[in-house]
Design goal:
By secondary structure, the protein is mainly β. Helix content is about 5%, strand content about 55%. The chain contains three helices and 24 strands. It has a 16-stranded antiparallel sheet that branches. It has an eight-stranded antiparallel beta barrel with strand order 9-10-11-12-13-14-15-16. A hairpin with a 4-residue loop joins strand 12 (about 320-335) and strand 13. The radius of gyration is 25 Å and the shape is globular. The two termini are about 45 Å apart. Residues about 1-55, about 210-220 and about 225-255 have low confidence and may be disordered.
């Protein structure tokens, strides 16, 4: 039996990306007076100055959400249907980079899940047809992962064709090749694909703690404020170009970019499980299970929404259970600050000996959402979940704390000028690619291979509430050390303190869930502390080296942790 865990919002929070947007500087207007005056002007200098352009420039980055399905061939004639989800960002018209996850949906190995980095090369063949080839490098396993996945390291290469369907997204098909070099999986198979492209607006880096950016840039990049120090009014040149059809601005000349509602939630869910439910091993399933996770909700209209969530077990004798669910729903306002939300979702789930069969899990429910402030809301939900082919089912109750904000609502290819972001704030974010090595903290830290260290690949998404303090969500999976089913998801806070122009120190504290890979994490709850040194390469990139400690309060797991991470800073316009 192999345990699995919680991989939280690495996929959500990474809605924000690896693509590098090129910063543009606004053209400086000459200080001399125009030689032609339409009317007689007084000799004194005019009091009206040209509109100050914001110091932060947001660039459109084409973003692609993609889903694939394929059947992997396993030893002894077994097959496993895998759902892949990708979030890719255009580095240039022919190259995409991003993150991806693959989870079992059919077969008998519910809970086999991997995560990692994805890349793609593409070439347009005609107006509607695109050829592409990609590479995924990741880690994971589960449901027999020690034998099938080995240490957990996974490679997937693919080649295929995509057909563009305009506003309805794109369809595609191709062939993929999957291998776990230290395990037994070697498989070549066809796949089908659906993807939906859209634009994300980002700034390339931001100034703050430890930054080598100029002092003027640092002064104008305010945390929690608008992109410039004052609300930006539309300039005369903007109004002129906006009223000219040839300018390409597809909005009313006096209307700034509208926003669409977004919700990011930290979630607790409790399952009440019927006594008739048994585990995969045949043992009785515990009557309760508690999960922690994160959820991203984006609104298509004022009421209809799409949602994506990832959760993992931290109590209930099911350490290693995780679920990654996507779906949609309807929000019915009951007043200015209260609403009912109806939802349904589906996705891969399993691990922790929970009997999800092939891995597909269905869920539905209703929630009462109450606004606390303009930006915060609390949500109480009731519902249920059921495995498609396994014995597992449960009633669910949950509490979510949500941060509510808006992102610019635009059509693909729509042009936006700096004035369009009037009233938007800079959300200073950092995405980190992480490698962590767990070293033995005691002789009972794992049930086998006690002397062998465990290497993990993962991501962190950081939100800076001021130049020195950040909130963080992290997810990692083992890729070596014969721990191919181990994953962990953590949340916490950190401090980033500059010690010179480019050098800084960091410290962070984290709590979360973990499981799998023979690591003795008890019921799945863990804590971790890290501290280290960082170097700011430029405004966007930084390199960090850390050391720390990770421990399971209810298990024997204890490890010393050495980490290396590469961070990319970017900003999103929010209101």
């Amino acid at each position: 039996m192999t345990l699995r865990n919680n991989y939280f919002g690495a996929i959500l929070l990474c809605l924000s990306a690896t693509a590098v947007a090129q910063t543009q500087q606004p053209t400086q207007q000459p200080t001399q007076q125009p030689t032609q005056q339409p009317t007689q002007q007084p000799t004194q200098q005019p009091t009206q100055q040209p509109t100050q352009q914001p110091d932060v420039t947001y660039q459109p980055v084409q973003t692609t959400w993609r889903a694939t399905f394929e059947n992997w061939k396993l030893p002894e004639g077994e097959t496993m249907g895998m759902l892949g989800t990708n979030l890719l960002f255009d580095v240039n018209p022919n190259v995409k980079l991003g993150i991806a996850s693959y989870g079992a949906m059919t077969g008998v190995r519910g809970g086999f899940i991997t995560l990692g980095l994805a890349s793609e090369l593409q070439k347009e063949l005609s107006e509607n047809w695109v050829a592409h080839t990609g590479l995924f490098v990741g880690a994971g396993g589960g449901a027999g992962g020690y034998i099938l996945a080995g240490g957990g390291f996974m490679l997937r290469a693919d080649a295929g064709l995509t057909y563009k369907m305009g506003p309805y997204g794109n369809l595609g098909a191709g062939v993929s090749w999957v291998t776990f070099p230290t395990g037994q999986i070697r498989s070549t198979q066809p796949y089908i694909m659906y993807e939906y492209p859209f634009d994300s607006f980002m700034s390339d880096g931001w100034s703050g703690s430890g930054s080598s950016a100029s002092s003027s840039s640092r002064a104008n990049t305010n945390f929690g404020s608008t992109a410039s120090s004052n609300t930006i009014a539309p300039s005369a040149s903007y109004l002129s170009s906006a009223s000219n059809p040839s300018s390409g601005i597809k909005q009313n000349a006096t209307r700034f970019a509208s926003s669409k509602r977004q919700e990011f939630s930290v979630a607790w869910t409790g399952y009440k499980i019927p006594s008739s439910v048994t585990k995969t091993s045949g043992a009785a399933q515990s009557s309760t299970m508690q999960l922690a996770g994160a959820r991203w909700t984006t609104y298509l209209t004022d009421r209809w929404f799409l949602t994506f969530q990832a959760s993992g077990a931290f109590a209930g004798n099911s350490a290693g259970y995780m679920q990654i669910l996507g779906g949609g729903g309807y929000r019915l306002p009951l007043g200015s600050s209260t609403a009912l939300k109806f939802y349904g979702n589906v996705g891969p789930a399993g691990g922790g000996d929970v009997a999800t069969g092939g891995g597909i899990l269905y869920g539905a429910g209703v929630a009462l959402q109450q606004s606390i402030t303009d930006d915060l809301a609390i949500e109480f939900g009731l519902g249920g979940v059921k495995a498609g082919t396994g014995d597992f089912k449960a009633l669910a109750a949950g509490v979510n704390l949500s941060y509510i904000f808006g992102l610019p609502r635009t059509k693909s290819g729509q042009k936006l000028l700096p004035n369009d972001f009037a009233g938007y704030k800079l959300a200073p974010l950092q995405l980190r690619a992480i490698n962590q090595t767990y070293l033995k903290g005691n002789d009972q830290w794992r049930s086998r291979d006690v002397g062998q260290s465990v290497n993990n690949l993962g991501f962190a998404a950081d939100y800076f509430i001021n130049p020195k303090v950040y909130l963080t969500g992290q997810g990692l999976a083992a890729y070596s050390g014969d721990a191919g089913a181990f994953m962990t998801g953590l949340v916490g806070a950190g401090v980033n303190q500059p010690i010179s122009k480019d050098w800084f120190v960091i410290a962070e504290g984290l709590v979360g869930a973990a499981g799998g890979g023979s690591l003795a994490v008890g019921n799945g709850s863990v804590w971790q502390v890290n501290a280290g040194l960082g170097y700011r390469i430029n405004k966007s990139l930084s390199l960090m080296v850390t050391g720390g400690r990770m421990q399971a309060p209810t298990g024997d797991f204890s490890a010393n942790v050495i980490g290396v991470s590469l961070g990319y800073r970017f900003g999103l316009p929010v209101n």
